[in-house]
Specification:
mainly alpha; single chain; about 0% strand; 10 helices; globular
C-alpha cells in the first residue's frame, strides 16, 4: 500500500513535467474518481442478492471502461495536443470497455483455458450481464439453481457442464455475445468514421481485432 502511495505521488510529478496544464490533471483526476467509484460498486455488488441491468452497465463503465480505455485514450490525445475529439474518445473507450468486460464475463463461463478459475464470478458473488439475464429471464428453477451456487469454491466437471448448459439454454450466452459484438461494431464504426485511413485508425482497428480474438473460436 505504501509503495502504491509513493508511485501515485510520482505520477503527479510526471504529469506536471509533461504538461503542467489543468486539462491533463483534470482528466487524470476524473479517471481516479471513476475507478474508485467503480471498485466501490464492484465490492458492494457482491453483497446484493439482486441487481439491475442498468447497475451492471454502470459498474462495467466505471470499473473497466474508464481506466482501461476511456481515459488512457483521452490522456494520450491531450499529451499529443489533440482534444478536439474528446467525446469520440469517450464513446470509443466506453464501447471497447463494455465489450471487453462482457467478453471477460463470457470467458468465465465458457472457457477453461483463460488462466483464471472458471466460474470465479459465481464463487465471488459477482453479478454479471450473464447472471443478470438468468435473474431477469430465466425459469424459476434456473434462478434457484444459480442462487444455490453463489459462493461455491470448487466445481466438478459435471457441475461445470450443468452451469454452462443453464447459461446456454436460458439464452444468457447468446444475449451477452450479441451485446458484446454490438459494442465491438460500435467501436469499429467510430474508428472508421473519425479516423478514416490514418495510422491511428490502423492501430485502433488492430486493437479491436486483438480484443475480439480473445474469444475461443
Amino acid at each position: 500500500v505504501l509503495l502504491g502511495d509513493l508511485v501515485f505521488g510520482w505520477v503527479y510529478q510526471e504529469l506536471d513535467k509533461l504538461a503542467p496544464d489543468a486539462a491533463l490533471r483534470s482528466c487524470f483526476q476524473k479517471m481516479i474518481d471513476e475507478v474508485i467509484f467503480g471498485q466501490m460498486l464492484d465490492v458492494d455488488s457482491t453483497t446484493c442478492d439482486v441487481m439491475s441491468t442498468k447497475s451492471i452497465h454502470q459498474k462495467m463503465l466505471f470499473k473497466t471502461a474508464s481506466y482501461t480505455f476511456i481515459y488512457p485514450l483521452q490522456l494520450g490525445a491531450l499529451l499529443a495536443g489533440d482534444n478536439a475529439l474528446e467525446s469520440v474518445y469517450y464513446s470509443l473507450g466506453s464501447s471497447l470497455g463494455i465489450a471487453y468486460q462482457m467478453q471477460d464475463d463470457l470467458l468465465d463461463i465458457i472457457s477453461d483455458s483463460t488462466g483464471k478459475t472458471p466460474f470465479s464470478d459465481i464463487t465471488n458473488h459477482q453479478h454479471s450481464i450473464c447472471t443478470q439475464y438468468i435473474f431477469d429471464n430465466g425459469t424459476e428453477d434456473q434462478k434457484d439453481f444459480l442462487r444455490s451456487q453463489w459462493g461455491k469454491m470448487n466445481f466438478s466437471s459435471d457441475e461445470k457442464t450443468v452451469l454452462r448448459n443453464m447459461f446456454s439454454d436460458s439464452g444468457a450466452i447468446a444475449y451477452a455475445q450479441q451485446e458484446m459484438n454490438q459494442a465491438f461494431q460500435q467501436a469499429s464504426h467510430l474508428v472508421s468514421s473519425h479516423w478514416l485511413q490514418t495510422e491511428s485508425a490502423q492501430s485502433l482497428e488492430k486493437l479491436i481485432t486483438m480484443l475480439i480474438n480473445r474469444m475461443p473460436s
